[in-house]
Amino acid sequence: AFQVKLASTGEVFDVEKGLSITQTLELNGIEIPISCEEGWCGTCMTRVLEGIPDHRDTFLSDDERRANNLIMPCCSRSRSDCLVLDI
Ligand code: FES
Questions:
Q1: What pTM was computed for the model?
Q2: Alpha carbons 60 and 29: distance in angstroms, whole number
């Protein structure tokens, strides 16, 4: 498991195995727009302020992946213990 932190409120949530970031946030009343939930449409794209995403999508380019400042939270996860999202 890893954590996501919302930059706007400072709230921190544990993302358990088997749940996506968007599912975790939705369970806590925070909705990120989603569509494909498979990492190809780009609808859920969210800015990352801190931490290193574990990219599982097929939407971002290699350069965008390396920049570590965008994530598709419907499917991607985290390499660091905590990801700070610009939400
Ligand atoms: Fe399509 Fe996340 S909902 S990429």
A1: 0.96
A2: 27
* Ligand 1 pocket, residues with Cβ under 6 angstroms: 34-37, 39-44, 57, 59, 72, 74
Q: What pLDDT does residue 8 have?
A: 97
Max CA pair span of the chain: 32
Write down the pLDDT at residue 62. 97
Q: How far is CA 39 from the centre of its chain?
A: 11
Neighbour-count burial for 46-82, b at 16+ CB within 10 Å, e otherwise = bebeebebebebebbeeeeeeebebbbbbbbbbeeee
The tens digit of pLDDT for each residue in 45-82 reads: 999 999 999 999 999 999 999 999 999 999 999 999 99
Average pLDDT over residues 15-36: 97
Alpha carbon of 3 to ligand 1 centroid (Å): 20
54 CA from centroid of ligand 1 (Å) = 15
